[in-house]
Amino acid sequence: MSDLGSDLPAAAAALSAEDRAGLVNALKDKLQLLAGQHVDILETLPPKVRQRVEILRDLQSQHDEVEAKFLEERSKLEAKYQKLYEPLYTKRYEIVNGVVEVEGVTNVAVPEEANKAAEDKGVPEFWLTAMKTNEALAEEITERDEGSLKYLKDIKWCRIDDPKGFKLEFYFDSNPYFKNSVLTKTYHMIEDDDPILEKAIGTEIEWHPGKCLTQKILKKKPSKGSKNAKPITKTEKCESFFNFFNPPQVPEDDDDIDDDAVEELENLMEHDYDIGSTIRDKIIPHAVSWFTGEAAQSDFEDIDEDDYEDEEGDDDDDEDEDEDGEDEEEKKGKSKSKSKLQSGGRAIPGKDQPMERPPECKQQ
């Protein structure tokens, strides 16, 4: 993954309240400008067509009022059901971490297995296995990360209201890698239902000496004849799941970076949001199914069906490729890349799944 997020030190600082207010105002100005353009379009229409469009706009306003009521009721419904989820999550935590034992499991250890008694407590590597089974998260987890993620006891999320957004919490047992017992990742959104990502903030990890997983130390032998006999050491950033807690930041002044850097930053921010929403929407609520592999199989079947539908039109696609010299999929990819970073370079496409509304995050 690119180091762009870490290579913009001063410009990449977290936005202040004043900057956030300016961003929102800029977004409003953009919307007003677009609205003005639509008014100009209306003025070009014949009078009768314009009247019909005005009636359609009135219908749209009525629809928006109904939708606002729907969103309000949906939030209340989500809050109601999140309270029903909580006892289940608590029970899952207790079983996974060996706080309680399930009925029928004996605590009497056979003599030759006495040394393994501690290992048999709860469900070892539960969250590590669940995350590695998800294809998107598996790409983020390196071999070096696995030792530390075995100490992961629980993952929670909650919605935050000021500013709007959501927070992920990762609870760790005491481990030889870092001092933190909880690592958090917070996403601040300008819009909640059709999310526009303002920024993401992660916990600063307090690594134990020599245990940092996001950096590697390179040693170079001194050249022959050099007066300095000591090897030259250099610290370099490396791939790690724990880079997730050091997310890319939006520069205070977009003029400081060129178009290529903007596109790079856009891709990093979208990827970061996708990982966070995957943990929130898939891993946390369905962790057991990911641990057993059932969720991965379900995802695979969904993808397989989509591929089958695409294959039905392959002949037509081949003809288009022969005539135009460019595959339809390539065209789609290009058009998609142009649609990101709307509203001053901070837009994240809205997700199909509604965001649940849990109570405040609380530590087990």
From TrEMBL:
A family per Pfam: NAP
Composition-biased stretches (Basic and acidic residues): 353-364
The UniProt record lists the keyword DNA-binding: no
Gene Ontology biological process: double-strand break repair via homologous recombination; nucleosome assembly
GO cellular component: cytoplasm; nucleus
UniProt keyword list: Chaperone, Cytoplasm, Nucleus
Annotated Acidic residues bias: 299-329
Nucleus keyword on record: yes
Stated name of the protein: Nucleosome assembly protein
Sequence segments annotated as region (Disordered): 295-364
